[in-house]
Amino acid sequence: MAKAENKTKVTEVTPKQFIAALDDGPRKTDAEQLVKWMTGVTGLKPKMWGPSIIGFGRYHYKYESGREGEMCLVGFSPRKANTVVYVQTGYAGLDDKLARLGKHKTGQSCLYINKLADVDLDVLEEIVRDSVAAMRGKYETWDS
After folding, report:
1. Domains of the chain
2. Residue 40: predicted pLDDT
């Protein structure tokens, strides 16, 4: 049986090109701010992962099933309904930080934010830094 190829991988499109193609408005403004902010927080250069995720760094994973691949350490996607921030550590031990973050919803490894003004960027920085550190402690990682 052939292994399925991961659909979400680094593309040739730049984050700047992707953001420029977004409709003008809060989603685009937040994306421009987040790419600069995450670059500063992580110290990593942004890359496009698939058609809509702006990711920072990368890690290699391998599941017990044998499936393996690469994904960004952290990232975000400016979607129509909200901005999705990808933090790969899940939320164990983050209850205090999430309580201080501001208006958001959570998914498996995602924070859903309607607009950046709804959250405390200092708390989000703590979450992003914790996620990067945890991923570097658990997986083989790269800065590009």
Report:
1. 26-142 (3.90.1150)
2. 97
